[in-house]
Specification:
With about 350 residues, this protein is an all-alpha fold. The protein has one domain: NCX, central ion-binding region (A middle domain of Talin 1). The chain is about 75% helix and about 0% strand. The chain contains 13 helices and no strands.
Length: about 350
Amino acid sequence: MELSAAIILFVIFTAVIGIAGIRLSRTADQFADLTGFGEAVVGGVLIGSINSLAGTITSITAAYQNHPELAVSNALGGILAQTTFLALADISYKKANLEHAAASYTNLMHGTLLIIMLSFIFLVTFSPEFSVMGTNPASILMILGYAAGVRMIWKAKRRAMWIPKSTASTVEDLVLYVEDENLNKKSVAIKFFILAAIVAFSGYVVAETGIVIAAETKLSETIVGGLFTGVATALPELIVTLTAVRQGALTLAVSNIVGGNTFDALCVAFSDIAYLNGSIYHVLARSQMFIIAMTLMQVSILVMGLLDREKHGIAGIGWESFLIIVLFVGGYALIIYS
């Protein structure tokens, strides 16, 4: 693909992601309220995994084509970008700190699961290199651990052992769209998955064209994966999150990010399975190790912010949002100029 064609496709499908992402946010909230699952569950599991589909395909493709650094940088770069998007959403919400208003037990559990998965990835990179049929057994353990964690989060909606303190600024799960008597679970579910497919495919095209653009500029795979494909495939999360905040579905806005991030971490395991030359964890460069540590730090800051629930902070946003933005900009500046 020529550079000019890649740029045109990049712009077109970025616009498609924006339009479909807005509709996806509305449909997801309808589905959450109609089923009674709650915004945190649907946002974290359904929207998070489906919006991450484009990034998943990109990482798997890169790993299969013997580009392990690009595969891992794309997955972790998506987490960094999406968490930064949540900080941008905090800026757009003027009433209070977003992490204060969207207090949720399940969101905290998603964030904790993500920290566990990122720590596990970091731990495996220092373990003895071992693979069975080209796959590190740690990848299978990660997939099983993710499934167990999601099951625990799913059950937590009904048996939460504690409840976040409600304040004047707290926004509970809102029934925003069920006033239409013609809405039913089947039609809303069909619409949801159609829109999700559009967003996922568009994200995939943006990722592929981004790879072409980056290749022409001779940038490293770390920068290509972290800033180009990682950010491009994370655009659905940005659109859905900002739209959810505008519509008042604050819990969905936060769960969309932390749930999608958890699935993106799982992409490292999928990439290892697709990588045919042994364990993908043991071929990572120093820059990928830095991104893993930076991602772990960023997510930890977010979870602490969700626990602290500061109403107003630096420049009208939470201290955690401020630090997340600083870490994203400063971290990539170090990678680029090192």
